Amino acid sequence: MENRVFDKVSVENLRRDLFYLCRDPLSFRTVSYTIPWHQKNSLEEADDFIAGEMRKYASCVELIPNKVQPFRCDSSKPLHHWYSAPLESDPWYDAHNIAVTLPGSEYPDEIIQLVSHKDSMSWINSPGAHDNAVGAVANMELVRVLSTLRLQRTVRVLFCNEEHSPWHSKTYANAASQRGDRIVAVMNQDSLCGKSDETSASGIKANVSAYSTPEGKALADFIVSEAARYEIPICATAVFKERVNDDDGSFIKAGYPDTVHNLGSLPYGDSQYHLAGDIPERVDLINLQLAVKLILASILDIDEQGASAFRNT
Ligand SMILES: [Zn+2]
Question: What is the mean pLDDT of residues 43-56?
């Protein structure tokens, strides 16, 4: 692979999309918040922005309808975990998964699946910059770069909702499994470059590839090795995540074990996790850009070699 392809990852695009989704015009991305005088709620407005951007680069952009409820807020719970399950009688809202497909030319049936949740917390007003506008804008930028290349395998991106109930990554992954989709690798970008205040102050650029299965460990170790192979200056590590959860967990439970979760630290160190202080100004955009380069390198080598790029033989 030509190293020049990494130069296409634009920190300006990442910054623009991040501030669009977290500051101006959209501070939040939730069915519980509508900008005064606007017709659509802020999650629908975020969907319009993401789908509109993606249609410039991909011919197949689907909006898959589903119903969600906002979580209830229970401030008696521990600080970072104030969400609590809605009641069945709470209001339901129309929401969407967004699925973007870049078809492969040689092996279109083999799918590299990228995932990121695009919504912000439905139980408090938080811009959700690290959780998870960063993952959404990373996947948007990956689509832009990948759309300029001739892919052998299919790359599919799911933008889903995970800060509302229920999680529709589950519905999506189960539907893929029922269709018999051949997904060779799943990478969930959720809270990229989210780090502790100490790590942020030290200037360390980091990416953790978290895995919960032996197959996921092989994929995580491969992502770590890509940093050295392409001399991407990021501290890349693979860390075991015991609980099969988050949107990557939805794919593992649907029968796709070759799955990782990319994030900035594990245990997750962001002091503003699930709080109103999770603002875009705190995002280390250079770290984000390096993480996107690392994921891009991994996608391109899997695209070239298939699952044998990372599977233990
Ligand atoms: Zn969250």
Answer: 98
